[in-house]
Every structure is written in C-alpha cells, then in structure tokens.
Amino acid sequence: MCGILAVLGCSDDSQAKRVRVLELSRRLKHRGPDWSGLYQHGDCYLAHQRLAIIDPASGDQPLFNEDKSIVVTVNGEIYNHEELRKKLAHHKFRTGSDCDVISHLYEEYGEDFVDMLDGIFSFVLLDTRDNSFVVARDAIGVTSLYIGWGLDGSVWISSELKGLNDDCEHFESFPPGHLYSSKSGGFRRWYNPPWFSEAIPSVPYDPLVLRRAFENAVTKRLMTDVPFGVLLSGGLDSSLVASITARYLAGTKAAKQWGAQLHSFCVGLEGSPDLKAAREVADYLGTVHHEFHFTVQDGIDAIEDVIYHIETYDVTTIRASTPMFLMSRKIKSLGVKMVISGEGSDEIFGGYLYFHKAPDKDEFHRETCRKIKALHQYDCLRANKATSAWGLEARVPFLDKEFINVAMSIDPEAKMIKKDEGRVEKWVLRRAFDDEEHPYLPKHILYRQKEQFSDGVGYSWIDGLKAHAARHVTDKMMFNASFIFPHNTPTTKEAYYYRMIFERFFPQNSARLTVPGGASVACSTAKAVEWDAAWKNNLDPSGRAALGVHLSAYDAETPLSNKPSKVIDSIPRMDFPGVAIQS
C-alpha cells in the first residue's frame, strides 16, 4: 500500500509550507519505500510515497492526463484497468500503472466515474483548470484514509492519522464508499449496493454461483509485477484463498515472472496447533511454506510500534495486529511485496460464534450488514496498516465488490447456523467448495469449526499482555479511568495500557474519536448484544462470552469480573489469516 498526503487550499504557497508537507509525507514513508513524489499547484500540494506493485519502472506518482491539467495521487489497485483503458482508447497514457486510468475517467465522466473502478483505492484528484478537487475511498474501506480541516480553511487528506493530526483543527476517518467534492463542499456516497439498505434478500442459494464469484475475486488479485504470496493460518478462509490461488496461478503473468509454485506464510507461538494446520494445508496444496515463530516477549516489545502504526486503542485489534505486524516484517525481508489474505468472510457469512444466537434470518442478515459496514474500523484497519508498516500490500478477495453482491443477495435462511441439520458457521461457503472430483481442501479442513484456544495448552500470549499491563496500570488508575478517559473509558488494565500509549502518540480529541467503542460480545455489534439477555453481563470481545454457544463458554451465573484471567481472555482463533496464536 502506498501513502498519500494532500493539503488543499491552504492559502500558503511558500517554500516553508512545501518543506512542511514533505516532512509530513515522510511520516508515511514506511507505506511506500520505493519512491517519493510531491506536486505543487499554487496553494495545493499532493505528496505520494510509492510501493511499486504494477509497472514499477514507470508508474511513479503523481499521475497526470495528457496536458497535465488533471493531477492524481492514489493508493490502491485497479483490477479492471485494462478493460477501462479500452473504453479510453482515444486517450494517451503516460505509464503502465493500473491507476493511470483515473485522471482520464474524470475527463470523460466527471465525478461520477468512481463506481466504474473495480479495486481498492484512496485518491485525491486535483483539476488545475479551476482548482477543484475530488477525494474518494474504496467501497468497504480496505485502504485507510483520513480527512482534516485547518484553521486557514485548508482541507487535508492522509493515508494515516500521523500525516495530519498535528496540523489540523479537526480530523476524522474518511467514510468508505464516499467521495468528497470541493465543488459541493461535502461528502457523497458513491457506493450504493442493494445490501446497504439492509433489506432482506431472497435469491436462492446456488453453491456454484458462489464458488465462481469467489474464484473470480481471487484470480483478479493475481495482477502483480512483483513477488507475492498468501497468508495461511490453516483456518477455512485463508485455506480457501490459498487453494484457489494455487489452482489458478499457472498460466498467469505473475507465474511467468515469478514461477508457478505459490509461497505461503504463517506466524505463531512455538507449538501452536494452527501452525500445524497451516503446514498440513501447505503440504496438500504444494506451496513453498514459510513458518515464522515469535515469543510473548517479542509481541510485548512490539506493542508501542503496533499502536503507532495501527492507530487504534481497540483491545482486540491490537492483540490480533501484533503477530501480523511481526510476520509482515519477516515476509518483506524475503523480497515479497504483496500478499493475499482472508479478511471479511466472517462478516459476510456470519462466522462469529455469537451468530448461533441470531433470533431469525432477518436479524442475522442485518447483523452481517452492520459488520461489513464497520470493517474499516477493525479488520481492514489491521490488515492494511499491519502490513503497510513494512511496505507490504494485503489484498482481500472476500471484500471484492462483485463477490459481496453475490454473497449478500443469498436468502439468509441458507446462512443460518443449524447444528441439527449439520450446518455449522459459514456452511454456504464450505458447501460451495465441497467438490468430490476436484477437491479444494481435505474434508476435515473444509468443515473445521472455529477453534477455541485449548485450556490444556494455556494462554501465554493473552496472559502475557495482561500481566505486562498490570505492571504498568494500578488499581488507583483504573478507579479514576472515567475522569482521565471520559470517551470510550477503558474497563480493563490492558485497555488502559493501550490507551495511554495511543494518547501519547495521538493526543488530540479528534484522534480518540476515530476509534470505535460500545458494547460487544464475542466481536458482535452493540445491537446483537440484545439477542441473549445473559450476554449483557458478559460484555467481552472473547468468543467465550457467547454464552450457550461454545462448550467452554463462560458460565452464566458468575459475574465477568470474577472470572479467572485465563477464562476471561481465552479467545477463539478468529481466522486472522496467517496468524496462529497458541502456546
């Protein structure tokens, strides 16, 4: 992922301002270590830190149209750029970059071209003819983006908080699926799929239609001019991504450049069963498998760096980001610049344990809609920034626009979890890839349920984090937490510890408002907490807070505050692709 920074209409075209923009842009250099660019037109500045994936030789930014009147800085990948180039045959392109189509599309269609883009992106487009500009972010928010406003009337855009938090009076997360136009002076949602209204769909489940849609989503992401691989944890989602990639890699341009044998990556604590599962899948698929180990102390030592890069104080996100952050550094050291990952499946198909308690298909569907809409604050944030911290790009086929349309049009009755009928979590996805003649995965892997951490093995990663936080956060500090942190008040010492670090890096009120909060059980939205009265006393991100779902769930009678730490913090393996946490 690249890094973009723009300062627009700042009423200052001085050399000092240019130097300041360059200084701030360098805060994003980890995202794009391959090239830096800065374009200035009067009091508008467009800066870019490039991670070269497509056309590394000539695709440096900013990008221009023929007469350079339209200027674009962009972070992302446009998977249908070759198709779009055919529609723009009368235009002359300066580079082979997939993002080169954006300025020309604007010339042809104005601000209404964004929905034509199939990919992940954040961009700033400056029309120097009238000094107007357009900013847009991809449909789900796979790429990170923030917007801020200065006292001088300027508008600031940055891939990360750290690019603008010190210079803006107010800033916030740029909403996914939206564009901001200087002509209208506000946001407009360009992404308007049928599922967004949360109306209940009725299309009958067809496993072959779902299979083809996901295969297309994966294969289009094989577009690359650099070495790549897949993140493989041994869970269903990452294993399917790896299986499809391995199946269709031969014959692609990527295979001709880098070889037809797929590379897979996994990280975990020594002895993790997920490491074993990942090796089993890798052996079955014939990938070149790379297994990385880390210790609890390695993870604790990285926490401050993780919070600086991920830019959140959300407990679950930090726990999951840390091993992914460590793994990304190892992957980049091997010369790999892009990985394909499995985020988004649990949100689309209701894969979290608490979905067992969905009262009916209507509420099941609405919860999946709510979860997808919130992905940019959680899993997308983690996947994007944990990899970008080391100049690595993560692509997520489950969040492909067309695939989401297919998957979210299915009658949710088919997605409902019904144990008595043998339908476990994500049954529709498992069934779609259950091919007897040409199996994608062994049956026991394809139908493996979400796994709970084993009590017999221990919880050294989570326990280690809790113990470390307890050494830095006293009971007195917790007693006064609501006065120190009135917004999203931390309720555990671990949360308090993360919040202290976050506030040191990002002390502005706007920064703390970018992090979500609210009641949650087993990663649910606040609305889903209403599904079971017992959950209201067990508000915890752990999967075991879903009472009555898992054999090792919390008992309903014991207050959460009285649970032993090993029970409170035992969480299910949530299929963070390539990440295996177990001692």
TrEMBL record:
SUPFAM superfamilies xrefs: Adenine nucleotide alpha hydrolases-like, N-terminal nucleophile aminohydrolases (Ntn hydrolases)
InterPro entries documented for this protein: Asn_synth_AEB, Asn_synthase, Asn_Synthetase, AsnB_N, GATase_2_dom, Ntn_hydrolases_N, Rossmann-like_a/b/a_fold
Gene3D superfamilies, alphabetized: Glutamine Phosphoribosylpyrophosphate, subunit 1, domain 1, HUPs
Listed GO biological process terms: asparagine biosynthetic process; response to stress
EC number: 6.3.5.4
Residues spanning the membrane: none
Binding-site residues for ATP, renumbered to this chain: L231, V267, S341, G342
Residues bound to L-glutamine: D98
GO molecular function per UniProt: asparagine synthase (glutamine-hydrolyzing) activity; ATP binding
Biochemical pathway: Amino-acid biosynthesis; L-asparagine biosynthesis; L-asparagine from L-aspartate (L-Gln route): step 1/1
Residues of the active site: C2
Domain of life: Eukaryota
Pfam family, one: GATase_7
Keywords: Amino-acid biosynthesis, Asparagine biosynthesis, ATP-binding, Glutamine amidotransferase, Ligase, Nucleotide-binding
CDD domains per the UniProt record, alphabetical: Asn_synthase_B_C (cd01991), AsnB (cd00712)
GO cellular component terms listed in the entry, alphabetical order: cytosol
Residue ranges of every copy of the Glutamine amidotransferase type-2 domain listed in the record: 2-185
UniProt-annotated site: Important for beta-aspartyl-AMP intermediate formation, residues: E343
Catalysed reaction, written as an equation: L-aspartate + L-glutamine + ATP + H2O = L-asparagine + L-glutamate + AMP + diphosphate + H(+)
Name of the protein: Asparagine synthetase [glutamine-hydrolyzing]
Lineage of the species this protein comes from: Eukaryota, Viridiplantae, Streptophyta, Embryophyta, Tracheophyta
